[in-house]
Amino acid sequence: MLYAKNLPKKLWAEAVNTAAFVLNRTGKSKQNEKTPFEVWTNQSFDIHELKIFGTPVYAHIPKERRKKWDKKAEKGLMVGYGEDIKGYRIYFSEKNTVDTKRDVVFLEQEKNKKGEPIIMFDTKEENNGGEESQTTSEVTPTNFDEDSCEITMCESVSVSEYQPCSDEETSSEETTPVLNERSKRVRKQTSFYKCNNVYSEESEPVTYKDAMSRKDASKWSEAIDKELQTLKANNTWDYCDAPVNTKVVARRSLFW
């Protein structure tokens, strides 16, 4: 799921929770014609509330959280479903945060960037002289109209004043010419990939070795020592003998 939508590995927990959420509401159980969710809660579930993982969305910003000339919505990606409150988990790449939002607009038709040619296939046509000539078919995606996107609402939520808006207008890009010989698809780096590059450069370490190899290793070492002292002071663990014929889970340091 993460690789299909080009999302960072940091969101692995959101992907696992989403997969479990969908399977519990669409999978089969021992009772005929009932899902595990219906068996456990004795409640039905509206399957139309399910959305594709990684779908672009606009999340409404309430009045109390914005000023007069601030934008009324911010763009993100749907990466899950709310647990404590009814809503959707939205990943905001600009802030590197995941929040649960109730007032969202799904851009389910937004798939390709404007101006990026997509070469579908190569065909060979035989002319009258018996020789084969190679042609290339090219499809350029049409502009996406955000006004026609679907609005998904949760119960008891008012969005009468909600108007989705975009911070930046889609800039026009030059169309890449298609070669007469064998076709080669040329990709341009979109703003979404650039954002991921910045995130990768500034991301937190995954292992202790990574933390100690950074420029700010001294700060990470100080933070690790402080955390260990806190765990010892709270009597977080006790030493004991491992049970017989039992696989012991190895320890692991987490930095996020």
What is the compact description of this entry?
This protein is of the alpha+beta class and 256 residues long. It has five helices and eight strands.
Model description:
- The protein has 256 residues and is α+β, with helices and mostly antiparallel strands.
- The protein is built from 5 helices and 8 strands.
- Among the domains are: 3-106, SH3 type barrels, CATH 2.30.30; 204-239.
- The chain has helices at 12-26, 36-41, 191-202, 208-212, 217-233; strands at residues 56-60, 73-81, 88-92, 97-101, 104-106, 118-126, 132-139, 150-152.
- β3 (88-92) and β4 (97-101) form a beta hairpin.
- InterPro entries: Retrotran_Ty1/copia-like, RNaseH-like_sf, SH3_retrovirus.
What labels would you give this structure?
two-stranded antiparallel sheet; single chain; 8 strands; magnesium; nucleotidyltransferase; 256 residues; SH3 type barrels; six-stranded antiparallel β-sheet; alpha+beta
Helix and strand content put the structural class at alpha+beta
* CATH hierarchy: architecture of the domain at 3-106: Roll
What fold name goes in the CATH topology slot of the domain at 3-106? SH3 type barrels
| Largest sheet: spatial strand order | 4-3-2-1-5-8
Distance between the termini: 21 Å
Percent of residues in beta strands: 15-25%
Helix content range: 10-25%
Number of helical segments with 4 or more residues: 5
Helix-strand pattern:
HHEEEEEEEEHHH
Protein name: Retroviral polymerase SH3-like domain-containing protein
GO biological process, one term: DNA recombination
GO molecular function: DNA-directed DNA polymerase activity; endonuclease activity; hydrolase activity; metal ion binding; RNA-directed DNA polymerase activity
Domain Retroviral polymerase SH3-like: 56-114
